Hints:
By secondary structure, the protein is an alpha/beta fold. It has helices at residues 11-22, 50-54, 107-120, 144-157, 190-197, 213-225, 253-260, 269-273, 276-288, 315-328; strands spanning 2-5, 27-32, 37-42, 59-63, 83-85, 88-90, 96-100, 124-126, 161-164, 179-182, 203-206, 231-235, 265-267, 293-297.
Amino acid sequence: MIIIPKRDYDASQLENLIGWLKGRGLEVHISKGENMTVIGLIGDTSKVDIDLIRSLDVVEDVKRIQEPFKNANRKFHPQDTVVHIGGVKIGGGNFQFIAGPCSVESESQIIGIAKAVKAAGAKLLRGGAFKPRTSPYAFQGLRGEGIRLLLEAKRETGLPIVTEIMDISQLPLFEEVDVLQVGARNMQNFELLKELGKTKKPILLKRGMSSTLQELVMSAEYIMAGGNENVILCERGIRTFETSTRNTLDLCAIPVLKSMTHLPVVIDPSHATGYAKYVKPMSLAAAAAGADGLIVEVHNDPQHALCDGQQSITPEAFASLAENVEKILPFAAK
């Protein structure tokens, strides 16, 4: 349920109303925008008399919300959420490039790529330390050493870092990490999501390869219900019958998610397509469709990358991609 106060509401009357609602065991979420204030009620509202609340002088309107997600619902929070990451803003008109290798391999590799992507316009550095792989014989990442190298690249360049967490037990290693990424395989690892809800760190939540958009938002709700509202949604391609690409990039996810939720939406064209040659056109399409950012795999020697080399683009190709995306942004869907 949401309550919309009148524009010229009396502060003391509104405070009394909020106190009355809390006294009935409801959680009250207040969102103040430029044009209106919205009060969201979370809990059992079945016994709340809508007509009684609507009759109050301080109230403009009352509406029941049918969707199962509350905190992430745009009806609760009409204004776009802007997530702050070490001085970098994403969402609410702030478009960002997140770039770096699929996997951290060495100090020279990660620092060299970090410097290159920063020069091309990236404001955040991505890099895998823990790598969930389909094959148990594939490279699994440098783990704790990988995080240490990412932090070294951050010291060299000033770029906030984004890396994937796979298990609750790994949380102590991520204390200095700026953005914790939840991969597609862990999108519905609810125990992990609950723990991430207790942190205040930004969370980059990737869509599961066979998950609906509502399921993605419900996973975000798990994090937000724990008190962490710094969630960024990521569309990384879904599994379909098509075999020409690694996954199928669902560009419709951008406007649909924007209508459902106030959270930022970024696109991962690297995992979505699986081939470097398709990364640029899909990045341009995502920017035009209104995405809040791109997370792109960049490697200085893709042919010899230890992980996902075929979908990684070179620093030079990333610079060209970023330049072309910047030209599209003024005409992007709002």
